[in-house]
Design brief:
This protein is of the alpha/beta class. It is about 25% helix and about 35% strand. It has one domain: TTHA1013-like (TTHA1013/TTHA0281-like), CATH 3.30.2390. The protein is built from two helices and six strands; from the N terminus they run βαβββαββ. Strands 1, 2, 3, 4, 5 and 6 form a six-stranded mixed β-sheet that branches. A hairpin with a 4-residue loop joins strand 5 (about 75-85) and strand 6.
Length: about 90
Amino acid sequence: MYRVGLPGWKLAARLNLPLSLRVDVHFDHEVNIFWATSPDLDGLAVEGQTLDVLRSEVRGAAESLLELAMIGKASRATPVLRFWDDVLTLA
């Protein structure tokens, strides 16, 4: 897998190499909501009531943003979710 954001990632996508995407997931204790951003893909910022909803939102937003970044070229991307909270970090 080639990570989005690294030099040449668009070329890798055009060659149909699978892409990975770092996504940082946070939990806001005040409003009980999960939110996510990506250091690799500008514009990715989503929220969800549960991790399942958030995961679905991340996938949809990532696909749309990657398609826009590729100017309509199809690419295969597998978002790799990294969960962050006050207690536990999973990679």
